Every structure is written in structure tokens, then in C-alpha cells.
Amino acid sequence: MKYGVVIFPGSNCDRDTLYAIEHVMGEAVVPLWHKDRTLPSDLDCVILPGGFSYGDYLRPGAIARFSPIMQEIKRFADRGGYVLGICNGFQILTEAQLLPGALLQNASLRFICRSVFLRVETVDSPFTAAATAGQVLRIPIAHADGRYYIDPDGLKALEDGDQILFRYATPDGEVTEAANPNGSLGNIAGIVNRRRNVCGMMPHPERAVEVLLGSEDGKVVFESLRFFVQQQEYRQWEPLASQN
Amino acid sequence: MQQFAASVIVTLRQNIADVQGKTIEDGLHSLGFMQIRNVRVGKFFHFSVQAASEEEARQIVEQACVKLLANPVIEDFSISLTPEEAEVSEL
Fold it and tell me: Is residue B91 part of a domain?
């Protein structure tokens, strides 16, 4: 499969993401520039990486949404392409209304940079298909604005639609207030859209891909995407084979 | 065409915990300002708008708020307009 990683002015996790995909996952990946008005035609997944695009001016993600490449990413998502927003990428996707809700300043008012535990809430998504339901992942967060908020109707829609992918939890997988680092509603750390092809998550899976760096639990996100894309290719190939 | 000075205040919606406001309120209380309550923190924008009428100016500013200055998912905004002299007539 092939990934593209978007670089906005102020992105700072683009290199880590490129490294994780190319050197750890062994997948093809190209950097994409925020001024690009076209995407390579053979992309399977676009990643919006972490950082502080446009200096977080106005609100995190509020200005990146107007980058020329975002029009293309909207079209790509409309066609069913996979889009993964990590940290600032998640903030951009909510501002661009590709994902519901918003990310507020952490309840502690502090920038938090540490490893947290996430419970996988559903494996019915291209981003979690290779995990097991209830699996606990150890992945770092690094953000000042990660408090997920959505109105009660929106929360109900997320829950009814099985759209919550990750919740902050204890190492044993219990979702408790003490395990919630930033005050997110319902300990929500990551969600998927209704169509299940656009995902946003505050934790950084690309920073947890090697034991040497403390954890390789983040690989499961990229393994899930690989699994999904392969399955899709298989499905496309099958009818042709049966015709012969 | 008239020109208006627009002031826009954007704050978190009432039902959303304003942790920054609460922290500032705690600070004010520890300085003895016990009379002060319900502190909300927001953003302030000031700019000029050219429009045929005050009503039209308000519509323009409202659109600017909904589309960019505020995030309607989490924020409310209030607008005040006052007529002002156009600096240079560019129209």
C-alpha cells in the first residue's frame, strides 16, 4: 500500500511518521506539501501528522483547513480513501468538519507529554482491524489541546455508530477518570467517521513503533490499514478471477 | 457604502467548562477579590467592515464568525457595530 504524509508549516511529526511507515512498516510513502493541488493517484492513505500547523493561530487546526491540499483530501475521503489525523491532524479534521466534535484545551491547562494506555473499543474499522477488542495499547500523547468535546446528541451518535476507536484507560483496560489525561468527554482518545474511512486520534502511534523507544503498540494502526487495503485489493481481484 | 467598526467577542459556550476562566477566578479569589465570579476567557477581534447598511454589515460579520472566527461546535460569539469614517475611499 502507499501512504502520503502532509507537511504543513509548523508540522513537526512528519519525519517520525515517514520513518515509521517506510523503515518500520516497510511501506511506500511520499511527503505531500500543503500547497499541492493534486494527490498522487495511487495513494491508499493520507496522514495529517502532529505539530502546530500555522502556529495554532486562532484555534489548533483552524488555519490548516484552508491549505490548498485540504480540498484534495476532502475529495480523497469522499472517494473512500483512508485519512488518518494524528494529534494536530485530528484537530485539523474536526475544524475541516471531516470528523465531528472539537478539541479543547486540556483540563489541566498544561501541555502533556507522556505515555498513556488506550483501550481499543472496536476492531470494526480500517484503523483497528488488526487489534483485538479490549486490547490495551501503550502509546504517547503530546498535546495542550486534546480534550475531546461533542454535544450529547453527537456523543450518542458516536456511540450508536460504534465510532469510538480508543478510550484512555488504566493499564488493565479500565476506563476511569484517573486514567483520563486531559479531561476528554468519555475518555475519548480516537474516533472514526460514520463511513469509517477517516480517523482522528490524539495519541501518536508513529512514536510507538519500536521496542527501543518504549513501545511498539502503535504499529497495530498501520497493520490494520495494511490488512484492510490488502483485503480490498483481494475483493477487487476476486470477480475478475471468477470470470476466467 | 458605509463603514462600521466591528468588535467580536468569542467565548466558550456556557455549558462547556472554561478551565482557564476557573483558574483565573481562583487567582482573583486568592488576591481577595471575593466579589468576582463566573470568569470566562475569550478572544477579541476588532476590524472594519464596509457595507450598504448596518444590517448587511452584521450579516457579513456573522458569516465570518460562523465560518472562521468562532468554532460553532464549542464557541459563542457576540458582535457590536459602530459607524465609523472610512479612512480612504477605495470603493
Answer: no
Decide if B73 and A102 are in contact by the 8 Å CB cutoff: yes
Find the domain containing B66 and state its range.
2-84
Would residue A204 show up in a list of annotated catalytic residues for this protein? yes
CATH classification of the domain holding B73: 3.30.1280.10
Q: Look at residue B28 and tell me if it is in a domain.
A: yes
Tens digit of each residue's pLDDT (9 = 90 or more) over A76-97: 999 999 999 999 999 999 999 9
Number of domains into which chain B is organized? 1
Residue A29 has what pLDDT?
Answer: 98
Return the beta strands (E) in chain A as ranges: 2-7, 28-33, 45-48, 82-86, 102-104, 112-120, 136-143, 147-149, 164-169, 188-192, 198-201
Which residue blocks in A107-204 are alpha helix, DSSP H? 152-160
Establish whether A206 is a catalytic residue.
Answer: yes
Among residues A35, A140, A34, A43, the alpha carbon closest in space to that of A87 is found at: A140
Contacts of A107 in chain B (CB under 8 A): 17, 19
Residue B48 included in any domain: yes
Is A121 part of the annotated catalytic residue set? no
Q: Nearest chain B Cα to A152, which residue? A: B15
Residues in B closer than 8 angstroms to A101, CB to CB, are 73
Predicted complex ipTM? 0.85
Distance in Å, alpha carbon of A109 to nearest chain B alpha carbon: 7
Residue among B66, B71, B76 with most chain A CBs within 10 A, to mutate = B71
Q: Is residue B89 part of a domain?
A: no
* pLDDT score recorded for residue B89: 55
* pLDDT, tens only, A25-64: 999 999 999 999 999 999 999 999 999 999 999 999 999 9
Contacts of B43 in chain A (CB under 8 A): 58
Question: CA nearest B6: which of B39, B66, B51?
Answer: B51
How many Cβ atoms sit within 10 Å of the Cβ of residue A63? 20
The domains located in chain A, with CATH, are 2-243 (3.40.50.880)
